[in-house]
Specification:
This protein is α+β, with helices and mostly antiparallel strands. It has a single domain, classed as Pnp Oxidase, Chain A (Roll). Strands 1, 2, 3, 4, 5, 6, 7, 8 and 9 form a nine-stranded antiparallel sheet that branches. Strand 8 and strand 9 form a beta hairpin. Helix 5 crosses helix 6. The two termini are 14 Å apart. The relative contact order is 0.19.
Length: 206
């Protein structure tokens, strides 16, 4: 196993914020012909019973503060996050032999951030979210389609409002680990850990 354009220890540690490393890797992933959805992120939460749940969400924005994704606040993940904001997340780009592992906490974005992103979505996606009762049992696909058609008629010629129970979360990372697959499984692992407003850098054993 190998990785093209492998960065050196010095190149990675020279960046003051690991999200800069993330941005560089994501740029590569978006340009890779073998990667269909570069922003796909596995997100792990814990429910009130202590059970872990993992699903894939899309990272829609990022900054030096962290990573933003959007969801139904009444979904299983939303209810998990309401009672326990600690999460784990992973970006895995197999064709590049790259992985980024994140641990941290989440908080809701401002309503303005949620509504701005909602307004940027395709109308069909807005309708689907508007009629969704995420994770609730449904009678059939036909029933879902009927609800969608009903909402389409209701909002014909009108803007579709952002539901109050839908919006964004900001994942603020506490640790970020960058993994690069190498030959003979002698992989590269680089860890950034945040203390206060500063990041410390370490190379880890494979």
């Amino acid at each position: 196993m190998s990785s093209k354009n492998v960065p050196t220890d010095q190149e990675i540690s020279a960046l003051s914020n690991p999200i800069e490393v993330f941005a560089n890797w994501l740029r590569e992933a978006k340009g890779h012909p073998g990667i269909n959805e570069a922003t796909a992120m596995s997100l792990a939460t814990q429910n009130p019973s202590g059970e872990l749940r993992v699903r894939v969400v899309l990272c829609k924005d990022w900054s030096k503060e962290g990573f933003i994704f959007f969801t139904n606040y009444l979904s299983k993940k939303g209810l998990d996050l309401e009672q326990n904001p600690r999460v784990g997340a992973v970006f895995f780009w197999d064709p590049m032999f790259r992985q980024i592992k994140i641990s941290g906490t989440v908080e809701k974005t401002s309503r303005q951030v949620s509504e701005d992103y909602w307004d940027s979505r395709e109308r069909g996606s807005q309708l689907s979210q508007y009629v969704s009762r995420q994770s609730a049992v449904v009678e059939s696909r036909e029933a879902l389609q009927a609800e969608w058609k009903k909402a389409e008629a209701e909002f014909a010629g009108k803007a579709i409002p952002c539901p109050e129970n839908w919006g964004g979360y900001l994942l603020r990372p506490k640790t970020m680990e960058f993994w690069i697959g190498r030959e003979n499984r002698l992989h590269d692992r680089y860890q950034f850990e945040k203390t206060g407003s500063f990041w410390t850098f370490s190379r880890l054993s494979p």
